[in-house]
Design goal:
Chain lengths: 520, 498
Amino acid sequence: MDNHILSAITFFPLIGAVLILLMPSKSFKLMRWTSVVFTGIPLLLSVRLYQLFSPASTGMNQAELYQFVEKYPWISTFHINYYLGVDGLSVTMVILSALISFIGVFASFNIQKAVKGYFALYLLLATAMTGVFLSLDFFLFYVFWEVMLLPMYFLIGIWGGPRREYAAIKFFLYTLFGSVFMLLVMLVFYFSANTFSLVELSSIMISKDYPGYLNVSVIRNAAWILLFIGFAIKIPVFPFHTWLPDAHVEAPTAISVILAGVLLKMGTYGILRISYPLLPEETMKYAPYALGFLGVVNIVYGAFVAMAQNDLKKLIAYSSISHMGYVMLGMASLNVEGMNGAIFQMFNHGIITSMLFILVGVIYDRAHHRDIHALGGLIQQMPRYASFTAFAFFAGLGLPGLSGFISEALVFLGAFKVYSILTIIAASGIILTAAYLLWAYMRVFFGKLHEQHREFPDINAIEVISILPVAILILLLGVYPAPYLNVVEPTMQKMVSIFSDSSGLAFNLINQMSHYLFRG
Amino acid sequence: MTEIMTDTISTNLQTIISTMRLGLLAPHLIVSMGGILLMLVSLLKKAAFKINAFLAIVVLGIASVCALNTGSDPQTGFNGMIKSDMFSNVFIWIYCATGIFTVLISHKYMERRKINVPEYYSLLLFAVSGLMFMTSASDLMILFVGLEILSVSLFVMAGIDIHDLRSTEAGLKYFLMSVFASAFLLFGIAFVYGATGSTEYSAIKDFALSNSFGRSPYLYAGVLLVLGGMAFKISAVPFHMWTPDVYQGAPLPVTAFLSTAPKIASFGFLFKFMAQFQNVQPYPDLLEDIVISLAVLSMIVGNLLALNQEDLKRMLAYSSITHMGYVMTAFASRSDTAISAALFYFAAYIFMNIGIFAVIAVISENNDKNLTLENFRGMAQKKPAMAFLFMIFLFSLAGIPPLIGFAAKFFVFSAVIQSGLYGLAVIGILNSAVSAYYYLRVVINMYLKAPEQDSGFDLNAIKYGMAEMLAITSCIAAIIILGLQPTSLIHFFEKIAL
């Protein structure tokens, strides 16, 4: 099993999906527990993967530094391979997607409409997500990326809220537009270097011996920008973010969890896996603006808009936009602290937001609305729920001792060295986050309890199961982040080294420019 | 004096017969003889409709096997008027397959609509033989004859539903437009002949190579007119006006045939004809620009007009314009992989288009009303299996991996990028994203909307026959299998050169 552990993690959910399709459509219980099993096994396997993983596998441009590699020819005329492998960048993302898929199943237990279709699509989605994180072949990456769209479209469109059709098609078209740009860049790379392997491509590109069309600097610049747009839509970066609140508000709870917990990370993961190693020079050129500046815009803008929301779910959705800004800022710093912080923040945001969305789902199941004004005093009726929510909100605002704090601190540490003014502006995001989360908490849990809310049962066992693993992880990593950072750091160090190695001149220029722009 | 004349005549006859090489035309002759046989059968028998359907499949099957026998080495016959090679063989297989699929989806539809005229199948066979002549031709006159055989059969097929005025209208429109296109083509051929003194491809090639293209305005004008005539058949913008009306009016199986084989044949001819000018130095810019603008216009206009169509057949008509635009980009790129990419696209296009029209034919057999998107509301609840198949076809047309539509677009845009036409590739790829919107509208209606109470469109009445299911399932199988594993097919096509 260990040799094919990556394929097993990727395709186990798909086997589950096929089994579910074969079941009689009334056996809801069987389908639910099948989904638990077929997302549980990949979770166990990914824990095993973590145990077996050696942090020395720093991947990037060296094929021998990837672990558990599986490489088989697929479409030989185009040199396309089925090529999977992990390095420090992808290993934690695989764990994240396995974990979130698993807890999402529990959050889906209350789905009553077309249960068979729901779980089949859900498991297909899980396969596609994992596939994206494991692909080392550009083409394979793209295929998984696109395959992910379809189940997501139906999951929002069929099981969503009142405006689900609009939200589903908006999500679909936005992402599709982003990905066709990626397709274009992919083809340019292929016809220049004659390979789709991300490993080979990065070693070619890092050596600066540009083949074919890539020798033209305009084409490299255009490639970076097109890739960025493709990934930015997924993150989502302001001004490409408008699909996200719509999708979240309409999506059922579990799908919001997946969307915020895993799908958004694909944007930043894509930049780290593809843009950074394949176009290092252009990355240095554009990172301060595209990632640094826009990241800070995300942080501040997201926080302000979140503050103005009355819909609890929309509030969390905008807080996601804000939190993904930290990831971008960390990535833009191009130093080890910042990058470590960024990738840790990806993981933390994944688990914290999942918890938040599940908690919002809990109150929605009872009240059938999420209007903050119409809630209040719930702490008397649902004390356990209130304490879980408090925990999640504190994690979200980066309370020391919880994991979000460490990643945000690392991001600021890294970013301050490069963009001091931007970082100071970004730090105000922390205050804003505290403000909107605590204000929302106050309005929902304190004050007078409404009469019609007196019947609400407190959080039940299934709901606790779905948030408990995440909560424990938030606490553990908050106190002792080493198990995470040790795995990630060597890879990040290596990634940073390509930026310090490659022409000092360019980097100086960037420093100077960013000095003028951002340090004042 | 007379002795000398008879001598020369007899020696001429001998050379003519020795250069004829009838074997090269085996598939063509089998199919056209089959057409005549079917006509005889329709006179004799009362149950001729059923027998003819069966016979048509047999004839097409035999013809495609014969194409195997003609061998893969290029051979010319009839004094260089016919050229048989791997390229034309592949097209013959494509036509036979399209013909067989058309028969499969026609039978029940025609019977339900009470237009079970047995001659329909012989017309279909004649059309297929016309297609074959178009591709095997290496002389513009043969091409023209082939095109006319095809067109005349298609006029009748499009207007065969005598109970429906729109079908008659479709037949008439197609007739008028085809005549117009033929006039373009003939005029072009006349110009080419005037400039080069021949209608044979190789002679035209020699002329173009020795006298640079640009220095001969007649050849230039002739080639452009030929291109224009073909653009009608392909329904490239701005020669596309007939498409939606004909698609909407013609009986569905005929639409399925009309939307695939003739377009593919026209492209086949264009690839073969334009390959003659591949090495002309300098390659005429205007020609290149015109092809590129045809491609760009077809993609953009087709998409824009498809976006808001409420009628499913019209929407598919406009979307087919866009699809032909994608192939046109490959044609414009003139890169090494353009032909294999286009061939792959044709294969994909046949499976997707025949499949989707088969599904629509099944749905509309019992429903006389117009097929608007609204009619599909809630289909997933009433007919889950049918809706699911329909959805796969739509997603494949939209180019979502891992279905064949994606692989096809991937190969085409690869060819375009390979030749460095980035702008064209960007436009193509963006259009392919836009097109997802209107395919998804159908899916939205099927899956996300509640069924309507009294649309007068009875989804429950849908029943499918064996033949239709056979066509649909084989198309679905091809779409999924070739989508996941396109290697062998594209590999096979890559070995085909002109």
